[in-house]
Amino acid sequence: MDPHLLTTFVTVARHGSFSAAAAELGYTQSAISQQIAALEADLGLPLLSRRPVEPTPAGRRLLEHAEPLLLRLRAARADVLRTAAQPRHLLRLAATPLAVNPVVSARLAEARARQPRLEVRLRTCRAEDLAAVVAEGRADLGLADGLAAPSDPLRLPESGPMTTTGVSEEDLVVVLPGGHPLAGRASLRLADLIDARWLQSPLCPLARLRDLVGDGFPAGLEYEGDDVHTVLALAAAGHGLTLLPASAVPAGGGGQVRVVPVAAPRLVHRVELLHAALPAGAPADVAAVLTG
Fold first, then answer.
1. pLDDT higher than 70, residue 87
2. What is the CATH number for 54?
3. Statement to judge: residues 56 and 30 lie in one domain
4. End-to-end CA distance of the chain, in Å?
5. Among 42, 69, 84, which residue terminates a domain?
6. SS3 state of residue 64
7. Which of 1-5, 13-17, 73-77 has the lowest mean pLDDT?
8. Which of 27, 54, 84 is the last residue of a domain?
9. 3-state class of 224 per DSSP?
């Protein structure tokens, strides 16, 4: 199958529109239709229904393969270019919202002290996008964070050859409103909170919490952003509980909330470094400091 045609197919399926795909890819709508027809002729199967525009059963199956295949191709291109690149003093770092914790910040400061000419460009991105950002060469290094059992690796999307190394693990706290009946406890068991209302947010995905602890943990409110201050304000107002790494909450809860350590099960907030092959230069040097 032609990767060019696969790209067109994925774009049409994502938009549910030939015209929107044409606008994104810079073709005419007629050219998009011809490319889809060529892919369908190659496979001998219809891949998209036309009214509405949506994948057929065969098209849905192809999508499962197409997106990882295209990512691997982009990753291969980036890897070749990265290997041929000259050493440089620029580091492009991508991180999920809570990955830059005090440990990471201190190690970055150490790396900069060792390399006075080092330039760091830091961007944040969603956990589900991080591996692709690194694999495609849009960042040299990635820092991912998430909930995990101690020493267990994070669950990261498949994105081709990638090195993943643990950077830090930190205790978690339950964030509650100041007037909550459990706010004065010395510690809490998460099993005792499965029927409480929780905040669904990228900072504490409830699906992952259920995987680690068990069913329950109903969502009281869904917040699609990743601002810690917003999460604390929502928790303070009683919209739901959440889990955060202890270092993400101001001392004493910042006057808005109360925080109680998690007693059981033993869970941690884990940060991992991920990267493809690194030629000599700033990214390799910083990676060594971050994981040292």
1. no
2. 1.10.10.10
3. yes
4. 44
5. 84
6. helix
7. 73-77
8. 84
9. coil
List the structure tokens of 216: 């329950």
Q: Which domain holds residue 228?
A: 169-267
In tens, the pLDDT along 178-236 reads 889 999 899 999 999 999 999 999 999 999 999 999 999 999 999 999 999 999 999 99
**Higher pLDDT, residue 220 or 73:** 220
Beta bridge partners of 146: 270
Q: Strands 268-275 and 141-148: what pairing?
A: antiparallel
**This prediction's pTM:** 0.73
Q: Between 228 and 67, whose confidence is greater? A: 228
Give per-residue pLDDT as tens, 229-251: 999 999 999 999 999 999 999 87
Kindly state the tokens that stand for 220: 């009281």
Q: Per-residue confidence at 135, pLDDT binned at 50, 70, 90?
A: confident
**Per the structure, how many domains does the chain have?**
3
At 116, which amino acid appears? P
Token pair recorded at residue 268 = 């941690």
Q: How far apart are CA 107 and CA 277, in angstroms?
A: 21
- C-alpha 45/C-alpha 289 separation (Å) is 52
Cα dist from 72 to 75, 80, 138, 247, whole Å: 5, 12, 14, 36
CATH number for the domain harbouring residue 116: 3.40.190.10
Q: Judging by DSSP bridges, how do beta strands 188-189 and 257-264 pair with one another?
A: parallel
* H helix or E strand, kind and range, residue 29: helix 29-43
Question: Which tokens hold the place of 40?
Answer: 């369908």
DSSP string, 83-123: HHSPP-SEEEEEE-TTTS-HHHHHHHHHHHHH-TT-EEEEE
- What three-state secondary structure class fits 50? strand
At residue 121, the pLDDT reads 93
Q: Which candidate, 154, 121, 117, 155, places its Cα nearest to that of 138?
A: 121
